[in-house]
Design goal:
mainly alpha; AhpD-like; 6 helices; 73% helix
Length: 131
């Protein structure tokens, strides 16, 4: 089940909290290119084991991806696996393709997308799928 549906189900009694989470989601998708953020969200879902398919599991070999998409997917993987040890090279690659402010926006949006997926996964695991 999609993260949005799980959050809506479990936060029905707390509309103010849901509204704030949705505002953060909307801001994330407003400040970052939707295709780029969608690719990174897909990779996050794959790493967490909640994706319907593993279409980006071998993204390194996909020649159709741009330099920006490659840099951001590499950053996303490092972020998901060990955020405390993100490499300077990964951060520099994203900064090079996006620029300073767009990198800040990207990392902020990535946090929002990742946290929504983790919250939904946790609630689905602990409380069961939304009905």
């Amino acid at each position: 089940m999609a993260a949005d549906a799980i959050l809506e189900e479990h936060l029905a009694a707390h509309p103010g909290v849901l509204e704030q989470l949705n505002l953060a989601r909307d801001a994330a998708w407003t400040v970052v290119d939707n295709r780029l953020l969608g690719l990174c969200e897909q990779r996050i879902r794959e790493i967490l084991g909640v994706a319907d398919s593993a279409q980006l599991a071998n993204w390194h070999a996909d020649a159709s991806l741009s330099a920006t998409e490659r840099a951001c997917l590499a950053f996303t993987e490092e972020y998901m696996i060990d955020v405390a040890n993100l490499s300077d090279e990964s951060a520099a690659a994203v900064r090079t393709v996006l620029g300073d402010q767009a990198m800040v926006d990207f990392v902020s949006a990535l946090l929002v997308v990742e946290q929504r997926q983790r919250i939904a996964l946790t609630w689905a695991t602990v409380f069961g799928e939304a009905k």
